[in-house]
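A common beginner's mistake is to predict each chain separately and then try to dock the pieces by hand. The better habit, illustrated here, is to supply every component at once so that their relative placement is modeled jointly.
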Amino acid sequence: MSKLVPPHGSNTLKPLALTDSALNAELNKAKSLPKITCSSREEGDIIMLGIGGFTPLNGFMNKADWQGVCDNMTMENGLFWPIPITFSTSDETVKAGDEITIVSGKTGTVVATMMVDEKYTIDKTHECEMVYKTTEMAHPGVAMVMAQGKYNLAGQIKVLSDGGFPEKYSDLYMTPMQTRAYFKDKGWSTVAAFQTRNPMHRSHEYLAKIAVEICDGVMIHSVLGGLKAGDIPATVRSEAIATLIKNYFVDDTILQSGYPLDMRYAGPREALLHALFRQNYGCSHLIVGRDHAGVDDYYGPFDAHNIFDEIESDTLITQPLKIDWTFWCHKCASMASMKTCPHEAKDRVLLSGTKVRKMLSEGEDLPSTFSRPEVANVLQAYYASIKDEDKVEIKMSGHSAK
Amino acid sequence: MSKLVPPHGSNTLKPLALTDSALNAELNKAKSLPKITCSSREEGDIIMLGIGGFTPLNGFMNKADWQGVCDNMTMENGLFWPIPITFSTSDETVKAGDEITIVSGKTGTVVATMMVDEKYTIDKTHECEMVYKTTEMAHPGVAMVMAQGKYNLAGQIKVLSDGGFPEKYSDLYMTPMQTRAYFKDKGWSTVAAFQTRNPMHRSHEYLAKIAVEICDGVMIHSVLGGLKAGDIPATVRSEAIATLIKNYFVDDTILQSGYPLDMRYAGPREALLHALFRQNYGCSHLIVGRDHAGVDDYYGPFDAHNIFDEIESDTLITQPLKIDWTFWCHKCASMASMKTCPHEAKDRVLLSGTKVRKMLSEGEDLPSTFSRPEVANVLQAYYASIKDEDKVEIKMSGHSAK
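With all components supplied together, the output reads:
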């Protein structure tokens, strides 16, 4: 009988989205409230709060929570949380006690209402140092924090939008309630999440299949929110992954779905957040590859592995499956990693991201030991469809889940 | 920093073997005590008690323990234990209150002394039904129970022998204290045990490598005690495994060692015992393949997986890594299992044990997708060395850890 992990810090999911008449009434009220615009990242967080992906949060964090999360990954009430979930504005008039309407900066639609409990300023540099381990503006997560407004607003929210995800990704988008129902229906108890923002080559397939071998099922879980410039678009990525699944996975042990957050690229801290919200989705494990959720060289390749050893073992129920750098080895005659292959670099199929992009752009075939031909075909078609000047920007991870 | 699982039901290992002057004094005393002979299985259990592999037991079980273990896998004091650890005799004169010397039935040497607390009879058929799920004498575990003496003797023991294992298997034999020290020295915290009584083909290598990918290390742990007729001898098996390790594993993530028990072939109940004593050896995981510790068709292929779901999740700290039937698939171009390969039987390399034995006996090469050539060479040399009439008896599992 299926017995899934409980949500984080709660026996039940706590979705903050209103429905039906409550939704209509709140949307009506929202019209008359002062409007504050949210950033793309904030909108993703709101949608995630709406579907219960950030259970048990009931809104945006106050200053004490922000400080505790930055410094000790712990909220004022003692709850483990690795990255601040905050809402900012530069509006000088809004104040504690106000009720406001939060409007999408991308689409102008109403996404939530908020009862403002606290208006506070933060030391952005401190947040970046603690969470991102850098204050360089070249880091996309740092740039997001630095671009925030002068103030943070804390308080409970009511979520009034689904962010358009169910419509835009009708085959892919699932809420934590939906994934939990799916897992139960399949009879799965142990489910590993495979986090990805990239198409899957054989190395990624290998990571997912290791997890399939020891769990009841694997959920390939794609970022559907904002990415940095040059990442492969979600539609192309999901088509490539669907092709891989169709040809190389067993239907009954695999699910592809997506979630609404923007990537923060916070590396180890984000790996913890990835495990935390996968617990809400019902996953018992998170596959953590090399340089998980990292960007450029800001983090060591195994920082995201090691951080799980730095928290108490019962902090998260969802546990990491830590896997090393993987590749095809001719002498092993199989996929392998630095931990399982004793052979030399010359025996291994190692292609840089730059090399892979070049080969795909020029319509050249990738080795079948690197990428399944069916997957490479999807990517070649995509590269052929985009303008030449865009090609240089496309970045793909060749080796590990990121 | 290495942080290993604690022993079963205890914070420390409880080896019952005496050493140095205590050993000499007890050996002297043993000379004057009444002597009772033990079977091969009982001797293995005594050696295991001696090295702390059966921590926290302090000797052989009494009737209440026997009953509780048969019926509920629970001893009188509430401790989880899946298979009775009992000592039998047909001696009519020995009685509760006596102190006895236990002598090896194989070698005649003194192996232990025992303070007899209780002399009792058991319903052997009940034990077989509960533990082995059959009373057929063709089952080697049933035959062992039925061959026991009329009475069981319960009581604390002092172990006075190492069973000759350290000498006979100097490179291979390690006590739980030694494996724990080895794991700590390597910096391992998560260690999976791979139980085997067979040489390792690619399917077994695949099981072990899945575990290497997600744990700090894997201990290939061979039965060095008694096997049923036709199993490959430990010396040949360990040479084949050493060859595999040398050519296809990374030194820093693998250890081959052995333990002194006889196989009981109790399938699911023995899988639980295998996990229990691996916890004492410091292993956080036990690889449980298809028909683990089974024999012939007495157990369903996944009975040993399912039994772990029938016990409370905190009963054992050491957790199973449950893996399905594995094989090479040409379309996957990799090792795979029924859970990861969506292709057809014709795409898979499946050889029966009978076919493999025939090919090896006739010096024919096994496909490299089934067995590493270096390993097949060791086995071919062994088959060439044994008498023809013995060959038909040799039994090898082609597909799964048993």
